[in-house]
Amino acid sequence: MLEELRAEHGDVLVTDAAALEALRSDKSGQRSATPPLAVVEAREIAHVQAALRWASAHGVPVVPRGAGTGLAGGAIAQAGELVISTARMARILQIDEADEFAVVEAGVLNGDLNAALAPHGLWYAPDPASRAISTIGGNIATNAGGLMCVKYGVTREAVLGLTVVLADGRVLTTGHRTVKGVTGYDLTALFVGSEGTLGIVVEATLRLRPLERGGVSTISAAFPDVEAAAHASSAITAAGIRPAALELLDASSLEAIGELLALDLGGRGAQLLIKTDGPGAVAEADAAVAIVRAHGGTAELAVDAEAGERLFVIRRAFHPAMERRGTVLIEDVAVPRSALPAMFAAIARIERAHGIPIPTVAHAGDGNLHPNFVFEPDVADPFAVPERVWAAADELFTECLRLGGTLTGEHGVGLLKRRWLRQELGDDSYELQRGIKRVFDPAGILNPGKVFA
Ligand SMILES: Cc1cc2nc3c(=O)[nH]c(=O)nc-3n(C[C@H](O)[C@H](O)[C@H](O)COP(=O)(O)OP(=O)(O)OC[C@H]3O[C@@H](n4cnc5c(N)ncnc54)[C@H](O)[C@@H]3O)c2cc1C
Questions:
Q1: Which string of DSSP letters, residue by residue, matches 88-114?
Q2: In whole numbers, what is the pLDDT of the chain averaged over residues?
Q3: SS3 of 356, please?
């Protein structure tokens, strides 16, 4: 069957064993049992169309893939599946200063886009910690969040329109280039966060912002314990302060990062990193420091923007630090900001009850926590999460939902959260969503087995 596709686009069809091996995993720690059939390394929209037309004609399942940095297993492929990678579609097609938008191909790296925008005095706000290594297409498919989403919003708020190749190879354009626009259903928003199950994003029109002209203040605040830090974080947002970033690191994540970066971060109960920006940066920083102190913390103001950035290097080193600790299940729950202290208390309880270390960092200003379950894998199946770890995670998800939270704040459902999806959505919403998937992908070839069980 593949010969037909090779005849049409042999230059982008790869069946090399080493290339296929790499597609068995992403950054979630999961790995498929077998490599996929082939990968189309698309360089233009026509390649994606040809591959999807071929897959539709032959009923071959397709796994869309960007840079493979996903943490939910969404881009993992197995035997019989065709991977369509948009990583090599990496051109910035247009930067419009007057109307503050950019048109980019899906494979542009988030960090590269911002480097190209800076000389124009513009920036693209969603900033996952993986910004240097993840693609805009992957960010859109996962509705990626990041450190500055607390003030500037997640990916959904920054996508004006999309070009998508549908399962049968048709090209669909959605959205608008205007600031406002409410014509018809909002298909752009539907595709954002759809994890490759509705179509393949090939181009995006992105909302830009002028580079922040006011100053930046960065505060490092140490607390005796994580609950005090969580209370301070909730109090800062409840006071109407809008930090550009508000991150929390617990004691064991600080210890792991300290080891990785050879810094002395041990011995602290927890740390908040608070960044304020814009014309009110100094006044907001002063107000945040007062709240930190009122909650038993000590606060230190970075001397300049560079020193502030160095503090955030600590936060961005969390995932690499966890990777060095061994096998990790990276979780991603979100709760209302006022429930942050209760969620941290629940994590401590679950850690003790199950005897599993759960170092946790949080985009605290969003109420979005990343508890990392560190465990010894089973020898018989080293890439599977053992049931005892899932039992602890199940307790954590249940507690999160009880507190009014959600199962995933930014990483997506992928393979890892499928079994809890119905529990959060309820039967009606779950079935309606499966119905929407059938409208876009009647034969069910797009990323089967992901999101929906
Ligand atoms: C060190 C590190 C830090 C991270 N920090 C953050 C963070 O702060 N915030 C955050 O949200 N995430 C974070 N992530 C997770 C990850 O980087 C994001 O989910 C990112 O958006 C994935 O982009 P990608 O290009 O790697 O996509 P992939 O991993 O290749 O794919 C992710 C999903 O998107 C689908 N997909 C990819 N490209 C397309 C396309 N063109 N069309 C349709 N579907 C597509 C795939 O099928 C899959 O379901 C982090 C990961 C790492 C390793």
A1: T---EEEEETTTTEEEEETT-BHHHHH
A2: 95
A3: coil
82 within 8 A of 38, measured Cβ to Cβ: yes
Does the C-beta of 230 come closer than 6 Å to ligand 1? no
Please measure the distance between the N-terminal and C-terminal CA atoms of the chain and give it in whole angstroms. 28
Transcribe 292-338 into DSSP letters: HHHTT-EEEE-SSHHHHHHHHHHHHTHHHHHHHHSEEEE--EE--GG
**What is the residue with the minimal CA distance to atom 5 of ligand 1?**
129
pLDDT at residue 303 greater than cutoff 90: no
Q: Decide whether any atom of ligand 1 lies within 6 Å of the 405 Cβ.
A: no
Contacts of 398 (CB under 8 A, 6+ apart): none
Classified as helix, coil or strand, 274 is: strand
Give the model confidence (pLDDT) of 1-12 as tens digits. 889 989 988 899
155 CA closest ligand 1 atom index: 11
Kindly report, residue by residue over 347-392, the tens digit of the pLDDT. 999 999 999 999 999 999 999 999 999 998 888 888 889 999 999 9
Token readout for 150 is 């607390």
pTM, whole model, 2 decimals? 0.95
Cα separation of 389 and 391, whole Å? 5
Q: How far apart are CA 84 and CA 113, in angstroms?
A: 22
Q: Are 343 and 400 in contact (CB under 8 A)?
A: yes
Position in ligand 1 atom list of the atom nearest CA 201: 42
Q: Which pLDDT score is estimated for 267?
A: 79
Q: Is the CB of 89 under 6 A from ligand 1?
A: no
Q: Is the CB of 48 under 6 A from ligand 1?
A: no
Nearest to 21 by CA among 53, 60, 68, 91: 68
195 lines ligand 1 (CB under 6 A): yes
Beta bridge partners of residue 328, listed in sequence order: 374
142: left (phi over 0), alpha (psi -120 to 50) or beta: alpha
In this predicted structure, the answer to whether residue 396 has a pLDDT above a threshold of 90 is yes
pLDDT at 304 over 90: no
